[in-house]
Amino acid sequence: MKIRTSRRRWAAGALLGVIGMIGVSAAAGCGSSPGPESPSAPGSAAVKVSIFEVAQADVVTTLETAFKKELAARLAGRPVSFDVTNANGDPSLIQSIARNLARSDASLIAVIGTPAVIAMAQQDKTHPIIALAMGDPVGGKVADSLDHPGHNVTGTIDFVDPAKLLDELAKVTPQPRRIGTIYDPSNENSQVWVAQLRAATKARPGMSLVEATVAGAGDVQSAARSLIGRTDTILVGPDAAVASGVAAVGAVALSNKIPLYLTSGDAATTGVLATLGPSYADLGAASAGVASMVLDGAKPADTPFGRPGALEWGVNRSTLGTLGVALPPAAMG
User: Fold this and answer.
1) Residue 79 shares a structural domain with residue 190
2) Which of 75, 163, 177, 212 sits a CA distance of 20 to 30 A from 229?
């Protein structure tokens, strides 16, 4: 990865500036308008962008910050306002926010988090919806295909084939053999990712997968503890619930000297050994590129989803020194 020891791959400076969260109270305000207006025509005076976040996490901050910065730059000369609402991982609040936004006068709705994208797509067939770094739009049934979405949802995806991750981890010394992972099975993105991780581990002789599931962020620490003695490595995929409680995973991993890798997150988090995945700052900027095309008249149904670039390593050198493992040259360069 481009980010090294103390830099955030999601870029706290760079899933996933400071988030302009309005909080739960903002959800009610989203429904104050009687109905949606058509997206602002190219060159029109004002653009209203509603940002809907499924939960609080560093990756969400990174995506939002990069998205807002790039979109404002692309719309230079046109007044643009951003209204941010966060569901704090509450399923009932996700549905409530989606209903309110469907009735809003936003020019465009940018959504971070698979459950929020799905809820928004179910509630709203009118507004252009831009999914930021969604895992699997087709599997989530919000798009017909990545190249031809077919509906009012487009954006970017962050899905990285777990086989590619295991290829990189196979270069670590000692080589991981028992991979533990934590995820929320109600998250469709996580379901797809873990299914492919299972297949990837089965395809590698001598490697096995140990799964721990959660129903929410409050279960993350106990799930991490359940992996002690059963795994020699923990790999956390793109799961919002686990991301919000990753500090607890890091504490468990470090105290038990288990290497912890994240596909998205902050490499500086205590206990994390490394991050390995796409650049969420780049995905946020790419999402803004898709959004600007839609605001300039492109139809979401005909606008392909953007894909992530090359994998990036982010290394926590403090954890590395404690564990004494050897990472591949690509991680240390």
Assistant:
1) no
2) 163
Which helix (H) or strand (E) is 81 found in, with range?
Answer: strand 80-86
pLDDT of 58 over the 90 cut: no
Query: Which residue's entry shows tokens 């831009």?
Result: 130
Q: Which of residues 24 and 102 earns the better pLDDT score? A: 102
Alpha-carbon distance of 183 to 135, in angstroms, equals 14
Claim to verify: residue 64 and residue 152 sit in the same structural domain: yes
- β-pairing, 108-112 with 80-86? unpaired
Across the range 238-261, mean pLDDT stands at: 93
Mean pLDDT score of the chain, rounded to an integer?
86
pLDDT higher than threshold 80 for residue 18: no
- The answer to whether residues 283 and 270 belong to one domain is no
Show Cβ contacts of residue 290 under 8 Å, excluding neighbours closer than 6 positions. Answer: 130, 154, 155, 156, 303, 305, 306
CA distance 177 to 208: 6
C-alpha distance from residue 88 to each of 57, 112, 143, 272, 299 (Å) = 10, 12, 25, 23, 31
Shared domain for 126 and 95, answered yes or no, is yes
Residue 188 maps to which CATH number? Answer: 3.40.50.2300
pLDDT of 310 = 81
Q: Which residues contact 38 (CB under 8 A, 6 or more apart)?
A: none
Q: Between 277 and 212, name the one with better pLDDT.
A: 212
Could you give the CA distance from residue 16 to residue 14 in angstroms, rounded to a whole number? 8
Q: Positive or negative CA dihedral for 315, 318, 319, 322?
A: positive
Q: Return the biggest CA–CA distance within the chain.
A: 61
The span from the CA of 125 to the CA of 219, in Å, is 35
* Residue 82 DSSP code: E
User: CA 61, CA 10: separation in Å to the nearest integer?
Assistant: 8
Q: Is residue 5 part of a domain?
A: no
For residue 205, CA distances in Å to 25, 171, 327 come to: 52, 15, 21
Within-domain flag for 285: yes
